[in-house]
Amino acid sequence: MASRLQTSCRASWWTIGVCILAAALLPGLQAQTVLVNDTVSGFIGTDVVLHCSFTNPLPNVKITQVTWQKATNGTKQNVAIYNPAMGVSILSPYKERVTFRNPSFKDGTIQLSRLELEDEGVYICEFATFPTGNREGQLNLTVLAKPTNWMEGTKRPLIAKSGRTEKILVATCTSSNGKPPSTVTWDTKLKGEAEFQEIRNSNGTFTVISRYRLVPSREAHRQQLMCVVNYQLDRFTDSITLNVQYEPEVTIEGFDGNWFLNRKDVKLICKSDANPPAHTYEWKLPNGTLPGSVEIQNNTIYFRGPVSYSVAGTYVCEATNAIGTRSGLVEVNVTVSRNFTPPLDTKRGLLFPHLP
User: Fold this and answer.
1) Domain boundary assignment for the chain
2) C-beta of residue 227 within 8 angstroms of C-beta of residue 171
3) Which of 104, 160, 173, 349 lies in the 20 to 30 Å Cα band around 306?
4) Which residues form the signal peptide (predicted)?
């Protein structure tokens, strides 16, 4: 609690003499002080106490009335009055919401219940005294409003396409009807960008909206995007996991660089990383037809019987999903005898766009 004195002396060299003279001639001015809070704050719907007391009254000073007022547009609006002879009076629109805690010649503290946004402002506690006149103290009441926070992902499908540069809306984070305004940020490893909008509502509260945009990519699939809202000491978080659709990325496994004559039970497996998963696989040799000894089952091509030179060639696998078709290929070589030192990396095939 801090004090404010209506009549005070500033500590500057040119006023020192005046202050000394005033203190000598009017000792009551130094003895009479109205103590109030500097600032008070509370949330909508809660109760606050506005402290006000009158200290060191002189024996010959008579207090005739305690009045609370609100400063509005340069005028003073009466809120509550305590008169030792007339009792307590609460004025509209504060009836049923303002009460004196323990009204007396020294204490004018009131309680303001069920705070409303319109209650915010400067309040004046005034003690009317005789014969020294009125003494008052002022305080600032700030009304706070907790925001409503939420996050929502876009309903639009996220599709990664080659050469695409346009950033599209991925998610929106909103902090609505807060006072003061919230701070909205994003926590993610994604390489997108956020835009922010702060709206002052007609009732004095604020709505903060942040929109997160990015270029859909295969790397963004299954990445987490978290919205973080900080308000006063409160922290709100919500997150989504991105579902990015993309065409297949194809690799071919099975050729180990050691297919020799008469080797048995060899096969090539076409694997694809795709969202949604590939639904169709097609095997082909660009420069010929598939050997008659092969059997194709979905994404796997089986070579029945012993290996011969006829199975050598470039094998292409095309994988297709709802987004598109991509191809992978592997060059199969057949040797006369077993190679005991296979190449370092013959497992993964090469990646190519769709081959005609």
Assistant:
1) 33-144, 148-242, 247-335
2) yes
3) 349
4) 1-31
